[in-house]
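subagent[fold] <- orchestrator: predict structure for attached chain, return tokens only, no commentary.
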Amino acid sequence: MESNLQQNLKENEKLLLEEIQLNIPLVSHPYAHIGKRCRMSEEVVIEKLRHFLKQGIIRELSAIFNSAALGYKSTLVAVRAEEDDITTVAERINSHPGVSHNYLRDNDYNIWFTLTVQQSYDFENEIGKLFDGIDTVKYIILPAIKTFKIGVHFPLTGRQLYQTNHALSQHKKSITLSEFDRKLVVLLQKGLPIVKTPWQEIAMKLRTEEQSLLSHISKLKKTGVIKRISAVLRHRKIGFHANGMACFRVPEDRIVEAGRCLAEYREISHCYQRKTYPEWQYSLFAMVHKRERSECLPLIEEMAMKIKSKDYLALFSIKEFKKERVKYFVE
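subagent[fold] -> orchestrator:
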């Protein structure tokens, strides 16, 4: 079914799905603006987007924020769970509101999840509580030390589209947010209305004028608080079945050069330097997306050769337990 969905998409529908992954323009009629580039009317764009959401091709259409700027911090966590405990462990992880992604992967560390919490929270304490009473669970906390690339974009046509590397505008520390800012964050993370004037609808809820709202959002984007406002697609629905996490062992003195090199690959959506441990020496992580696993492996091998890493792993997701955007300022 998933393959048929992708194959049955018309050319202008593919164009629309490409455009909607980039940035929703800050104009009164953003869907009309996008429609001009996709050879569609405003009405047809709205109809198509609602259809894609209903079918699950679009996961969500909302803002992506810089968690550090909002007073939060995040980390990747690798868990080693016994086979009989996997379901229980995954359910406990999913129960935490700060968990956005949770996957079963083909490694001794078989459960991998991302956790976002307020800056004052302790990762060890939050994670430890999840596994209380399960003595066989082992885990390592892998926070990002350097970010080389953040930005998922799945190409559906032969066009060469620009790719923004949002790593360059990352804040290290939180900034002072007004009450208006917080209310705006809550609304933008719920999803952009698919109506002719979505910004006007949000402005009315905030009791402000549309142009004032657009200026405020533009300011938050320029300061890096908002990375982008766009759609996230369900990659399997559009034919990208392979989701490989490549882990490379790279010496500290070459990590920046290697990270920048990998960030240039269009197939890579995320690239980080992460903390290492005696039992886990892989310092550079890159998320690779291709249509099939057989396409991923040669590419990861090429990457390893290019950055001169002789020790590397390719971990593929076997099962998706949870995938959703983090919700901020929500109890």
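orchestrator: received. Logging for downstream: The chain is about 35% helix and 25% strand. Residues 72-153+236-320 form a domain with the Alpha-Beta Plaits fold (CATH 3.30.70.3460).
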